[in-house]
From TrEMBL:
It comes from Bradyrhizobium archetypum. GO terms for cellular component: cytosol. This is NAD(P)H-dependent oxidoreductase. It comes from the Bacteria. One of its GO terms (molecular function) is oxidoreductase activity. InterPro entries: Flavoprotein-like_sf, FMN_Rdtase-like_dom, NAD(P)H-dep_reductase. Residues 4-158 form the NADPH-dependent FMN reductase-like domain.
């Protein structure tokens, strides 16, 4: 069966630069033969993490469902915006809740430990969200995830696409291809 990759944009905004990059990455992954699922975190709404809430009602079903969805894939690509030099609260809060889901809920293995993660970001400025990537790498590593060395920080993202929504600058397209290929290569070892 095909290699399964889950793509998660870290922004809910209509016209999100990161959702757009996630769409381009999903297309590139599919072209390389992966079976790609692209989701919106808008379909997994979660309250801000609160230990009292967890003690009273358990982990919300959307966190359990999201963790199940991750467990059903070999690799996960997170495409995150940069907010004030870090990941948006949406991304951190989602990971915090998912990290609290008990293993018994999972399909197989440990969701972070046994899956390969890749990270990318898009930003309007010249740094491309590289500080958010450093933060996200640290967070995922704390969850024992394997995060591949390649990453993509898409700078000047408003001007990065042509009319077909393809990456118009060859250096960006090459960086995306390298990321996608490494994610597939490393994920294949998990099959
Ligand atoms: C930003 N933005 C931003 N950009 C950046 O490169 N570094 C940063 O530290 C910040 N900080 C920041 C804080 C907050 C609260 C907001 C709302 C925005 C700009 C951000 O990159 C831009 O809004 C992107 O377009 C957000 O991603 P999406 O929604 O287009 O995917």
């Amino acid at each position: 069966s095909a290699l399964k990759i889950l793509v998660i944009p870290g922004s809910l905004r209509t016209g999100s630069l990161n959702a757009k990059l996630a769409a381009v990455a999903a297309h590139a992954l599919a072209q390389e033969g992966a079976d790609v699922t692209r989701i919106s975190l808008g379909d997994f709404p979660l309250p801000i993490y609160d230990g009292d809430l967890q003690a009273k009602s358990g982990v919300p079903k959307h966190a359990v469902n999201l963790k199940r969805m991750m467990a059903a894939h070999h690799g996960v690509l997170i495409v995150t915006p940069e907010y004030n030099s870090s990941v948006p609260a949406l991304v951190k809060n989602t990971i915090d809740w998912v990290s609290r889901v008990q293993d018994a809920h999972e399909i197989r293995g440990q969701v972070f430990r046994d899956r390969v993660f890749a990270i990318a970001s898009a930003s309007g400025n010249r740094f491309g969200g590289v500080r958010a990537l450093a933060a996200l790498r640290l967070i995922l590593s704390a969850c024992h995830a394997q995060v591949i060395p390649n990453q993509l920080a898409l700078a000047f993202a408003e001007d990065a696409y042509d009319e077909m929504d393809h990456l118009k600058h060859p250096t960006d397209a090459e960086a995306l291809k390298a990321l996608v290929r490494q994610l597939i290569d490393v994920s294949q070892r998990m099959m």
